[in-house]
């Protein structure tokens, strides 16, 4: 059995979807369920949205001798969850880093709300409204929940206390953190808890909450359920649903096709750094998507 086969989980999507209330896909009926490129979707399809929130056209990235991405296309709309799938080394994380400005592309065009942009740094990505939750989460174990949420954008007290004495507005940051967590239905009893003591699921939700504090329009989640048990994974997927409801575009990397079936609208498959198919998730079988991931079918 290949490494990928061991890692990919098939068949839990329906169970998860049911346990989570059997969400219906908001775009059901708008697409035909077959592999298609973002530029040439199925005949007869009616798209109800304007220009994509984010579009990648012919993006390539090379690391020395390794061609990590070659002519990759991807589109995501507001309020849409796009799963980014592929074998180990397919280029998923590289694509996330290209979009988030960590490793800018060598070639190709990135469009944001219909306008070509150059995302050369993470700061530019954040300013546009693109937030990223990396797989390692990049949380500081020794700091508490509120401190982690505001890491890198700490707020000083208003007036002279902040300007002159450089005092942090701890109370204000805790209040906003509490409001944010409550709005997302995230239960963390005490914001002064060091994140080292939180469960994997709570850590994941803290990392997502931190990304949301910047009020992004798009969020990239690199394997958010990989280290979680079923209940915590289900909670994170509920959160993804909630982000979609708020009109945020979500790119979700996952090896768990059950999760993808439960929550994604579209799936984009990468194989050896190239596109290998776009699928309308509600009307496409897990087997079909799996075949594209392992290269049994070619949809370039
Ligand atoms: N900084 C780097 N320097 C050199 N090669 C790199 C670098 N980052 C990624 N690569 C290579 O680019 C290719 C794509 O890697 P990437 O991490 O994007 O894959 P992935 O799809 O995220 O895989 P996984 O499922 O294992 O996380 C791999 O061959 C990898 O070795
Ligand atoms: Mg990766």
From TrEMBL:
InterPro entries in the cross-refs:
AAA+_ATPase (IPR003593), ABC_carbohydrate_import_ATPase (IPR050107), ABC_transporter-like_ATP-bd (IPR003439), P-loop_NTPase (IPR027417)
Region annotated Disordered sits at: 18-47
PROSITE patterns, per database record: ABC_TRANSPORTER_2
- Stretches assigned to the ABC transporter domain: 54-297
Statement: the UniProt record of this protein carries the keyword ATP-binding = yes
Q: What spans are recorded as compositionally biased (Basic residues)?
A: 22-34
Q: Which UniProt keywords apply?
A: ATP-binding, Nucleotide-binding
Any Pfam family from its record, for instance, is: ABC_tran
For this UniProt entry, the molecular function terms from Gene Ontology, in alphabetical order, are: ATP binding; ATP hydrolysis activity
Protein name as annotated? Sugar ABC transporter ATP-binding protein
Species: Streptomyces sporangiiformans
């Amino acid at each position: 059995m290949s490494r990928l086969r061991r890692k990919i989980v098939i068949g839990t999507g329906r169970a998860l979807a049911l346990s989570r209330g059997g969400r219906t896909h908001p775009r059901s009926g708008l697409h035909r369920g077959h592999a298609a490129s973002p530029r040439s979707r199925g005949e007869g399809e009616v798209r109800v949205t304007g220009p994509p929130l984010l579009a990648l056209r012919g993006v390539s990235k090379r690391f020395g001798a390794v061609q990590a991405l070659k002519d990759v296309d991807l589109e995501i709309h507001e309020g849409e969850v796009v799963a980014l799938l592929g074998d180990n080394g397919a280029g998923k994380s590289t694509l996330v880093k290209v979009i988030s400005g960590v490793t800018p592309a060598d070639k190709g065009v990135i469009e944001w709300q219909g306008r070509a942009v150059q995302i050369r740094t993470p700061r530019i990505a954040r300013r546009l409204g693109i937030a990223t939750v990396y797989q390692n989460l990049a949380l500081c174990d020794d700091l508490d929940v509120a401190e982690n949420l505001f890491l890198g954008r700490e707020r000083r007290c208003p007036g002279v206390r902040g300007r002159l004495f450089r005092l942090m507005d701890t109370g204000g940051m805790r209040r906003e953190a509490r409001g944010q967590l409550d709005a997302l239905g995230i239960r963390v009893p005490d914001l002064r808890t060091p994140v080292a003591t939180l469960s994997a699921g709570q850590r994941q939700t803290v990392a997502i909450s931190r990304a949301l504090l910047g009020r992004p329009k798009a969020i990239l989640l690199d394997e958010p359920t990989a280290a979680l048990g079923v209940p915590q994974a289900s909670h994170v997927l509920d959160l993804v649903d909630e982000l979609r409801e708020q009109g945020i575009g979500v790119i979700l990397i996952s090896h768990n096709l059950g999760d993808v079936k439960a929550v994604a609208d579209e799936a984009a498959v990468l194989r050896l750094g190239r596109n290998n198919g776009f699928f309308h998730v509600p009307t496409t079988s897990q087997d079909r998507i799996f075949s594209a991931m392992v290269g049994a079918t070619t949809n370039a």
